[in-house]
């Protein structure tokens, strides 16, 4: 028969016992298959419940728009008429006749290859500068934090937070 995990951990050597370990309930179905019941099922349900806001956001903000965009790419669509399926005609036109597509692709790759690493390097430099323990750096830290606080106050975020706690 199969023993629970927490029974095995109680008698372990080389460390302090785990205090808040729950006993897992196991039921043996056949010779080699195990069915999880009890706490394990509740833990799975809790995990799926906590994951559900992300899954809903993923579906509505990324997955569904992506599927709709793929569908519309195979149609002749404008807002005034119903979409008519035209197959790969849009892709053939973009790759063979449209010069702005290649220019846009070139500009995008140049942006990704040059500006993104430069911005990351600059952000790392500023973070390392703000992390030093010198008196001059303290002034720079105060200036950055003051600017962040001013921006939050200008947008009205602090006002909403203080109204909630009154």
Could you give a quick summary of the protein structure above?
It contains six helices and four strands.
Describe the structure.
This protein is mainly alpha-helical and 166 residues long. The protein is built from 6 helices and 4 strands; from the N terminus they run H-E-E-H-E-E-H-H-H-H. The chain has helices at 5-10, 39-73, 89-96, 99-130, 135-155, 157-164, and strands spanning 25-28, 34-37, 75-76, 84-85. The strands form 2 sheets. Strands 1-2 form a two-stranded antiparallel sheet. Strands 3-4 form a two-stranded antiparallel ribbon.
Rg result = 29 Å
The helix fraction, in percent, is 55-70%
Q: Mean pLDDT across all residues, rounded? A: 75
What is the H-and-E element order? HEEHEEHHHH
Biggest β-sheet: strands ordered side by side in the sheet: 1-2
Approximate shape: flat
> Low-confidence parts lasting 5 or more residues at pLDDT below 50?
1-10, 15-25, 160-166
Report the β-strand fraction as a percent range. Answer: 5-15%
Specify the number of helices: 6
Number of strands: 4
Structural class: mainly alpha
**Main sheet attributes: strand count, strand direction, barrel closure:** 2 strands, antiparallel
Kindly report how far apart the N and C termini lie: 59 Å
What are its keywords?
166 residues; mainly alpha; two-stranded antiparallel ribbon; 7% strand; flat; disordered N terminus; disordered C terminus
């Amino acid at each position: 028969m199969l023993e629970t995990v927490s029974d095995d951990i109680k008698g372990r050597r080389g460390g302090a016992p785990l205090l808040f370990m729950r006993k897992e309930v196991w039921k043996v179905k056949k010779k080699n298959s195990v069915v999880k019941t009890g706490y394990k099922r509740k833990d799975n349900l809790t995990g799926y419940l906590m994951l559900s806001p992300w899954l809903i956001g993923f579906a509505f903000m990324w997955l569904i728009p992506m599927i709709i965009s793929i569908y519309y790419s195979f149609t002749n669509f404008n807002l005034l008429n119903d979409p008519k399926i035209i197959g790969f005609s849009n892709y053939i036109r973009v790759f063979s006749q449209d010069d702005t597509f290649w220019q846009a692709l070139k500009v995008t790759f140049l942006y990704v290859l040059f500006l993104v690493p430069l911005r990351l390097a600059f952000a790392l430099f500023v973070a390392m500068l703000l992390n030093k323990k010198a008196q001059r750096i303290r002034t720079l830290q105060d200036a950055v934090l003051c600017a962040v606080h001013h921006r939050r106050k200008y947008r009205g975020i602090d006002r909403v937070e203080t109204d909630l706690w009154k």
